[in-house]
């Protein structure tokens, strides 16, 4: 058995407080489950001042270091390498592609997707000018290639992403492991508290039922604009249906609000909720008539799994990794075809036997994604990468 390792984890994106999105949830759950299963190695977590108090330390083998540097900045390239190398680690894990170019410590990197490489410039694809967008993409490509070429090992979250990395970045399949994100199929304890019940009831009181639900950051690859147009047609036969879109407010969401007005979706038939707590999201998942994920590109896709866990059927895009993750527990549509999306949504609204059949398959799908398994596989990768 090897000597205990000193492992660093870049936890600046940890949790929802700092806006780290999917990678933030990933590193949060990875840390919490490594704390449960690893009783040998030492860990140092690099975090921001803002999320420092959110990260528990279960014993003396776990420490935290404030590295108050935002991602994708010049300081990330200058301050982070010094902070990491100072700790004299055996290995550091970057949970996103943004590995500082000058870091000397051996590292493992998780690459969730290649969305930035796949997204061509257009006025709707970005809030930036074409020149700024292309410069940003060049920086992304350089950082990504550095991460891939210099990592001791690469982790990714789907076979779809693995194949993309191999073919687009000329990487050996032996250097990449697929470790599916975990998914806790138990209902959170907080969902039973009075506070949760009150918050859930409050958000539900703002919504007319039945409603169709989606959670996303509104970025163009999420394809919410096509969902809006599809919903406008659906209202012809289902005029009492509401579309509920959860996610943080941003410039892309402002564009969607304007688009909804332009295509004359009534104000009382669409709700942009803004950021919601987990317990509020649980209430919305549980009471939705259906969940729809129209994305053209995804890294993994936790929200439709949340819907299945809460007994809500899913209509999903037949694109990217989505069919790989959801398997036979969803009904699929072409994300570029409004008629295809409309048909899938209408079938779930009207066909009770279809809903029952899909949900009967959901438990087996959800059981494939366990954070304990993800943490165990990741720990083995750490140990192999140092030996």
TrEMBL record:
GO terms for molecular function: glycosyltransferase activity. Residues 21-186 form the Glycosyltransferase subfamily 4-like N-terminal domain. Pfam families: Glyco_transf_4, Glycos_transf_1. Gene3D superfamilies: Glycogen Phosphorylase B. Keywords: Transferase. One of its GO terms (biological process) is lipopolysaccharide biosynthetic process. Residues 209-356 form the Glycosyl transferase family domain. SUPFAM superfamilies: UDP-Glycosyltransferase/glycogen phosphorylase. PANTHER family: GLYCOSYLTRANSFERASE WBBK-RELATED. This is Glycosyl transferase family 1. It comes from Candidatus Uhrbacteria bacterium RIFCSPLOWO2_01_FULL_53_9.
């Amino acid at each position: 058995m090897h000597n205990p390792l000193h492992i660093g984890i870049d936890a600046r994106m940890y949790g929802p407080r700092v806006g780290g999105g999917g990678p933030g949830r990933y590193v949060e759950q990875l840390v919490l489950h490594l704390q449960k299963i690893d009783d040998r190695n030492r860990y140092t977590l690099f975090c921001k001042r803002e999320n420092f108090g959110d990260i528990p330390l279960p014993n003396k083998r776990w420490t935290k270091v404030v590295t108050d540097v935002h991602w994708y900045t010049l300081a990330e390239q200058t301050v982070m390498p010094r902070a990491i190398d100072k700790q004299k680690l055996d290995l550091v894990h970057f949970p996103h592609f943004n590995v500082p170019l000058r870091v000397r410590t051996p590292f493992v990197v998780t690459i969730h997707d290649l969305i930035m490489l796949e997204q061509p410039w257009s006025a709707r694809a970005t809030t930036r000018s074409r020149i700024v967008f292309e410069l940003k993409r060049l920086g992304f490509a350089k950082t990504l290639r550095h991460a891939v070429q210099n990592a001791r090992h690469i982790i990714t979250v789907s076979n779809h992403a693995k194949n993309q990395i191999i073919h687009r970045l000329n990487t050996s399949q032996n250097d990449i492991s697929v470790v599916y994100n975990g998914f806790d199929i138990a209902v959170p304890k907080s969902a039973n508290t009075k506070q949760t019940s009150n918050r859930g009831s409050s958000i539900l009181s703002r919504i007319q039922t039945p409603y169709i639900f989606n959670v996303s950051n509104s970025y163009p690859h999420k394809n919410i604009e096509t969902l809006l147009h599809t919903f406008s047609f659906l209202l012809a036969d289902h005029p009492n249906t509401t579309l509920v879109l959860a996610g943080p407010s941003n410039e892309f969401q402002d564009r969607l609000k304007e688009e909804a007005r332009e295509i004359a979706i009534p104000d009382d038939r669409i709700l942009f909720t803004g950021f919601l707590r987990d317990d509020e999201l649980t209430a919305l998942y549980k009471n939705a008539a259906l969940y729809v994920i129209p994305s053209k590109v995804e890294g993994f896709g936790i929200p439709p799994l949340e819907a299945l866990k809460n007994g809500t059927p899913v209509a999903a895009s037949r694109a990217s990794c989505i069919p790989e993750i959801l398997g036979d527990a969803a009904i699929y549509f072409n994300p570029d075809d409004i008629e295809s999306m409309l048909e899938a949504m209408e079938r779930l609204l009207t066909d009770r036997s279809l809903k029952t059949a899909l949900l009967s398959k959901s438990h087996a799908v959800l059981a494939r994604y366990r954070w304990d398994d993800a943490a165990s596989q990741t720990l083995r990768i750490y140990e192999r990468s140092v030996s």
